[in-house]
Predict the 3D structure of the following.
Amino acid sequence: MSSMSITSRGSITARRARLVAAAVVVVAVGLAVATRVVGLPGALADPAGDAMYAALVYLVLACCAPRARWWLVAALAFGACAAVEVAQLTGVPALLVAQWSPLRYVLGTTFAAPDLVAYAVGAAGAGVVDRLSPARRPPG
């Protein structure tokens, strides 16, 4: 049983709309960080971008399963990000990025273990924000 109080299709639709709006913001901020528009130094921009990536994965999964527990969605988001990171050890993502460069924002090209920490922070952070959201908490 889910910990949230969503009982109607309208509530689910409203939750999905909020998640999509949050995803648009995360994409905009993530792209600003990735393209250095916001002026963060590289030492901060890379982990910030990775955390935003994990937060976006959280939002996509939460939109697909709006009744799922926040901690489960966060764990799945981290797992998906970690799987993509580990896949970089194979060289396949680098080959795909060489074919179509925008894939670098989704697949990356080079394995970096510290990215896993940023993914954990981003997925957990998105989950906590979602959990603490007044729209998600049960009334009372």
